[in-house]
């Protein structure tokens, strides 16, 4: 079992969600984060003074999947999230030892 | 200009009322600002605030004169026995240019210093424009909107205000045709303000097209406390609007005050009841909307119905509005914050219901259909309402098309997705986090329209 | 009805004051709304707003008449030499039913159009009910509360307002017993409004029982800016409340104005000093609470003490309230937003301190104990306060029990945990995220009470 | 004290105006509160609120008497033909100690009850002090600030208010030197309020030193809706401030009202234009700042310029302020919320521009340079402005140093980083999460200054 | 060493926290997230129109534990968080290579 | 490849960020969390009553790094975040199977 984590642009969240659900993923967990990366140097003027902006709002997706699906889901996410602009984000995969569904207590693959 | 002595009590009341009406525009900014999503709150508020800037200045320069200068017009047969035969169209813009001559202690309007009347009516002009903005939330360029406020003020509001508010012999020998020639009753501006702004909002919504996601996503208010604040300030300010329109501190103002209270109370209850039975829950947005609907509806009627009549006017109009706000989904125009549904529909109901509920014992002293007055007042009300509707819609549509063809109206799709506050004002509404990021920004993406899947792009006539 | 001529200055002031008092109810909505947790803010505000709806309509229909119609009552020995012997209990509800006859230019109350007095007093009735809601934050069904506003208005407020505010010969031949027969001084409603609402809040808190977690979790205000806004608007509006109660624009109103300023200033300082020395920090909630405590305390006394006396009244009452708000933890009643601690205690102190601080040079012209007047005024004040306390507590308790036994009062435990806004109004107060989720909801759980560990369920008499 | 009859209309207006001015202080609390970071919002608001407490009480005790008691001073050559020769410095603090004698119906000021004038002027004193606080956001101990309000009121504001607002023969035989001997025009307090508070803010900013991160981090407003609310309430209240300063409800008040509208409208436009062309975007903070700049500038001039002149006064002063707010970065003083840039600069421009734009047809009846009046009025304006600037700066600086040397001014570096709300008030502004943590706190760290890298510690003279 | 991550209903946070603390866990990190899963189809009415709700507020717990305790802590969490309703959430376990306590610089088990 | 997660005090975020960037790290993702740990027992008074505070605002950093740099980056973070006070937080390392850069689709080390 794997945990896929993706950092994406907020504006593409909806299309990413639809893409992975269409692909058969049944659940996911989402949170708001701030990203620091290549996408910077953006300059804002405030009261006549210029400041460089460092942190940019991003969305973080976490999806638990079974090993065989993992590769494909990563591709689906990356595909749906791609705008081709700097700042599109990252997707990464971490191994998971075990999963438990709280409601039923089922564990392992059954809990995904 | 009538030469009466200045009454300090009347002046005190009208100056107070003017301040109350001025407060309504920030009130509207909060009412509207709370209803949009967090990423557009500042632009929404700015659309109201900029109206205070542009119209404030125009009013002093020539707006007041276009509305309340001696009217240009022509003779036409009277509509009533011994009624006036002059059909006034537009105040002379040069008569009071720059408010010349009005600082003199001799310059009076009724029992008021002329400047008090200038002040009071200035705030009407400001809020009328600001009301329109609710129809085009989240997507209009700030430059386009600013230009619109100027053109709409000059071409739509100033003339129409003259039609409705300028009485023969008050600030000029001839006033406007609706008030004098037609004799429609409009105590505080159901036609000149609410029908006018409401239908103009429809014209703009049609020209700009719907927001991305309109009709498929709820786009609920991002801050209901701000909406409620707006509703509270609007109600408060509206006592100035309505009771101030008596232009004196006496029985008429007091009756208008009570009607403004009770029609609104009834309207709030009516909207909540509609929601309770249609949707299952009475919402706070419903309460706020009901309040505004009631205030709109009683605006023209505040001086011509009894308090019990006001309960009916407020209740009926509010229930109608509660249904009317759903029409935009049916017909596909994105009247984002229900300017059409509340101001046009509410203004229309209020104006026309006078024809039914006008009470001869009220200050106006006119009897409506239900009080044995027949349909005489009813048709006058209907004609006034229709005339303003047609004029405002056509001219607003033309202005909106002009702006679209010239400097452009709509921000880009990517900017609309990221949020208009950042692109137009380079600001974000809130940064409430206790964590201090150095220079965090909420702007993120530089998408083009082509980057979006087809289904996401609405049929907006960009 | 006294037949005097209408004074435009007095009318201007009272219409203004009425608008100020109307604004107090939204102000209260923000004051209370900011003090609850984020998940209940809308319901809290709606409890105030709905009062504007129900009481607004009732007042016009028969509320005004129940308070200010010619009073039903009986003869009793006078309490003063040549004092009135009539003990007035309830205004005739039919005399001014639907405000009939009051639109006439001949209908006056003192130097005011009768309708101006109707307007001013309407807003008193609205806020009195709204005040009660703070005692039952987060847990009362909206239907239950709405019904309560109606019953409490009819059975408690309208009669008591008549007792205190209806003077013989002002709007009816006979007025209420506290104002006339007893002769307690209550300039703007320390008894009729604050003691009345405060003790009724206690009755409701007892009937509904405490919130889940009361006494074990702090449940601090979720938005102090909203609380401060409420406090600011309340103070502003209270000038209408107190100085407007002079019913004329002259020395009395001006004295009441200054007392309303300085008593409140002193009260804010007093509360902050208590906090500074008891808890270590002066808090903004303390400042807001002190402001309200001072305003409550000076309400009955605004016309009968000197500005220096007002400093004492405000300071003493506020310090008392600062301690009284802790009593709920000791006795276990969940007076959630300190209606008892501030309005009942503050109203009681203000009413009784008149007996000590009344200054013969003040507009009321009565001398209290400290000014050589003996205990005559003191016992009158005490009797008035006790009478309202007992009547209001008993009747409110009965109304509350009636609602509990019939349509029910309290939302379910699971709903209370999830938040009352979503269950009762299907809305959330805020969605400030710049990220746009499609259709995110904040409602989550459908727990039953049995799912909770024992310790989590308080001993609420559900 | 002049013995005229009380006019109810004038009284109604001034009591209303007083309430409007009182509301400005909470308005300022929101304006300032929204501009700081989320972790300091409560402290910022408390600095305004506490001014209402301390100054409110002091005013009643002896402040009014120090400003409006019969003035102590000396004879000096007159500056005008037949002008007064008495140079008034300070009102007799004992004459109206505790407002003695002013509750009497015979105590009048012009056509007002003396108490109405007391009320109106009390609110001026309160807001003047509160304005200063913006210069030292986020870093001043609450005790230090509270002490400052007391000392500044006594040593700076009460005397200066007497100089400017106390006219010979109005509340005492002799008034202050600026109003009478010098004859500078200051309708509503450009010198006594805005120059006074603005330059005092500079003194405090210098004594306290800049915030950590000043000049290197943007420190943008955390809640622009709160800022806009503040701006809206300030504008609303300012009608009381300016038009109320006529002390009667007639032509003068009406002219001042219109000027207050149009100068502010022009100022908003001017600031937004500067931003549009300098920074690329018109911001909502710019609109709010422009509004305040315009209000400040028209304050002294409201009764002496025509509406067209007001457009110039507002527009010019606002553009100047829009540039002046950037000076702090150049010179390194942390005038955090632009008290110097807006109030000092705006007040200065407004005061001096009278010398150019004063219109002989306006209520003041004086001609400025552009209206053929030569430089007579111009130098009077300049002298008045300079005198207040110098006096206020020096005394404020001394008071600030005294506080620094005794009880201390600045919170620790660690506390400043964590946020002043938690350390000084033990509260957090917001907890908007729908998730209920038991007892979550936002305070986190107990850093000492040594824990910070060098570059992070600014050269603040701690 | 393991990292246990749990997505739970906000209303059960307090009892879960108490349960794990009683079990001996000394620290945890909490954040707010939005969940998408089986628990949906909830319909809301807004302005007379119906909309389906997709995302629901959840709480995310992260707890670092030593390997032997892991299994039990997962059970404690799942037990305390269970209400038996759809939407109760998931608990999953990820292997951790190393842990450092910032204050002291200690690493490995000592840092938990 | 590794994922470094750090829980730190909000006030040190800026210096930690600068330290890791100076060290050559090109990106990171940040979020706000609430921490429960040894740092507690803090008592607040509200309306005259005392309450103990359990949760404290912290910042969470996530940084993807290549295996060889991992150790050092952890040290840099811990060093920059240390104030020596209880509540300074934790840093931990989790193995990562794969990383994809959304913009380009690159995966593995190239995507960091
Ligand atoms: N090494 C990293 N570790 C964790 N998150 C990262 C890392 N690098 C980038 N990110 C996240 O990915 C986002 C996009 O990265 P960025 O470098 O701006 O653009 P791109 O991925 O298109 O090259 C950042 O805002 C940040 O949230
Ligand atoms: N595959 C998944 N990956 C990550 N989080 C998930 C996944 N499935 C569910 N979740 C999280 O668990 C929560 C509950 O899941 P849900 O399917 O609604 O109920 P249940 O777990 O009771 O079957 C979701 O709201 C989501 O936050
Ligand atoms: N076992 C744990 N699992 C996850 N996070 C933890 C754990 N222990 C501590 N933390 C996080 O680290 C923060 C600091 O821990 P704490 O025990 O208070 O201080 P220290 O790390 O200095 O001993 C906590 O607020 C919490 O966010």
From TrEMBL, chains A, E, F:
O-UMP-tyrosine found at: 51
PROSITE patterns linked: PII_GLNB_CTER, PII_GLNB_DOM
Keywords: Phosphoprotein
Annotated Pfam families: P-II
Gene Ontology CC: one annotated term: cytosol
InterPro entries linked: N-reg_PII, N-reg_PII-like_a/b, N-reg_PII/ATP_PRibTrfase_C, N-reg_PII_CS
GO MF term list: ATP binding; enzyme regulator activity
One GO term (biological process): regulation of nitrogen utilization
Source species, domain of life: Bacteria
UniProt keyword Transcription, yes or no: no
Annotated signal sequence range: none
PANTHER family, per the entry: NITROGEN REGULATORY PROTEIN P-II, NITROGEN REGULATORY PROTEIN P-II HOMOLOG
Family: Belongs to the P(II) protein family.
Name used for this protein in its record: Nitrogen assimilation regulatory protein for GlnL, GlnE, and AmtB
Organism expressing this protein natively: Micropruina glycogenica
From TrEMBL, chains B, C, D:
Matching PROSITE patterns: AMMONIUM_TRANSP (PS01219)
Compartment(s) where it occurs, according to its Swiss-Prot or TrEMBL record: Cell membrane; Membrane
Recorded superkingdom: Bacteria
Gene3D superfamilies reported in the protein's UniProt record: Ammonium transporter AmtB like domains
Residues spanning the membrane: 12-32, 44-67, 112-133, 145-167, 187-209, 221-241, 253-273, 285-302, 308-327, 339-358, 378-400
Domain spans labelled Ammonium transporter AmtB-like: 12-430
Membrane association type: Multi-pass membrane protein
Principal location listed in the UniProt entry: membrane
Protein's UniProt keywords contain Isomerase: no
Keywords linked to the UniProt accession: Ammonia transport, Membrane, Transmembrane, Transmembrane helix, Transport
Any Pfam family: Ammonium_transp
GO cellular component: plasma membrane
GO terms of molecular function: ammonium channel activity
Family membership noted in the UniProt record: Belongs to the ammonia transporter channel (TC 1.A.11.2) family.
Identification of the protein by name: Ammonium transporter
Organism: Micropruina glycogenica
Biological classification of the source: Bacteria, Bacillati, Actinomycetota, Actinomycetes, Propionibacteriales
Gene from which the chain derives: amtB
């Amino acid at each position: 079992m794997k945990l896929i984590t993706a950092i994406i642009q907020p504006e593409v969240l909806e299309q990413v969600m639809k893409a992975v659900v269409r692909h058969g993923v049944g659940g996911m967990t989402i949170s708001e984060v701030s990203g620091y990366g290549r996408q910077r140097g953006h300059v804002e003027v405030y009261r006549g003074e210029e400041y460089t902006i460092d942190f940019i709002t991003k969305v973080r997706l976490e999806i638990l999947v079974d090993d065989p699906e993992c590769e494909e889901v990563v591709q689906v996410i990356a595909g749906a999230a791609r705008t081709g602009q700097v700042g599109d984000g990252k997707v990464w995969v971490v191994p998971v030892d075990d999963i438990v569904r709280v409601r039923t207590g089922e564990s392992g693959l059954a809990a995904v | 200009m009538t030469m009466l002595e200045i009454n300090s009590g009347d002046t005190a009341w009208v100056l107070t009322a003017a301040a109350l009406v001025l407060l309504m525009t920030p009130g509207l900014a909060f009412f509207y600002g709370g209803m949009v999503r967090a990423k557009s709150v500042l632009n929404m508020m700015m659309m109201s605030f900029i109206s205070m800037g542009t119209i404030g200045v125009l009013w002093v320069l020539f707006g007041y004169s276009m509305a309340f200068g001696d009217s240009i017009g022509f003779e036409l047969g009277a509509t009533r026995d011994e009624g006036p035969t002059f059909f006034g169209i537009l105040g002379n813009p040069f008569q009071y240019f720059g408010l010349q001559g009005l600082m003199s202690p001799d310059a009076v309007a009724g029992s008021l210093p002329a400047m008090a009347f200038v002040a009071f009516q200035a705030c009407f002009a400001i809020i009328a424009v600001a009301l329109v903005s609710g129809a085009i939330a989240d997507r209009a360029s700030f430059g386009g909107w600013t230009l619109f406020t100027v053109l709409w003020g000059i071409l739509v509001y100033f003339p129409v205000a003259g039609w409705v508010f300028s009485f023969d012999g008050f600030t000029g020998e001839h006033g406007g045709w609706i008030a004098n020639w037609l004799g429609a009753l409009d105590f505080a501006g159901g036609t000149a303000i609410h029908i006018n702004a409401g239908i103009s909002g429809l014209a703009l919504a049609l020209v700009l097209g719907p927001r991305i996601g309109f009709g498929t996503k709820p786009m609920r208010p991002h801050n209901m406390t701000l909406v409620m604040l707006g509703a509270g300030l609007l109600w408060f300010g509206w006592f100035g609007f309505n009771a101030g329109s008596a232009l004196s501190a006496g029985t008429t103002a007091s009756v208008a005050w009570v009607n403004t209270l009770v029609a609104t109370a009834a309207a709030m209850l009516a909207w909540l009841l509609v929601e309770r039975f249609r949707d299952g829950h009475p919402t706070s947005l419903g309460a706020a909307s009901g309040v505004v609907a009631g205030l709109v509806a009683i605006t023209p009627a505040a001086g011509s119905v009894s308090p019990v009549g006001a309960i009916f006017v407020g209740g009926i109009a509010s229930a109608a509005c509660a249904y009317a706000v759903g029409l935009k989904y049916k017909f596909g125009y994105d009247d984002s914050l229900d300017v059409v549904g509340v101001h046009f529909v509410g203004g229309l109901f209020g104006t026309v219901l006078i024809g039914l509920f006008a009470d001869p014992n009220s200050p106006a002293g006119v009897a409506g259909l239900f009080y044995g007055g027949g349909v005489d007042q009813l048709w006058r009300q209907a004609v006034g309402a229709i005339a303003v509707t047609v004029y405002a819609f056509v001219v607003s549509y033309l202005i909106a098309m002009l702006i679209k063809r010239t400097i452009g109206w709509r921000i880009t799709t990517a900017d609309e997705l990221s949020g208009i506050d950042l692109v137009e004002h380079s600001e974000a509404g809130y940064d409430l986090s206790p964590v201090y990021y150095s220079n965090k920004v909420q702007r993120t993406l530089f998408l083009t329209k082509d980057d979006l899947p087809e289904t996401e792009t609405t049929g907006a006539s960009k």
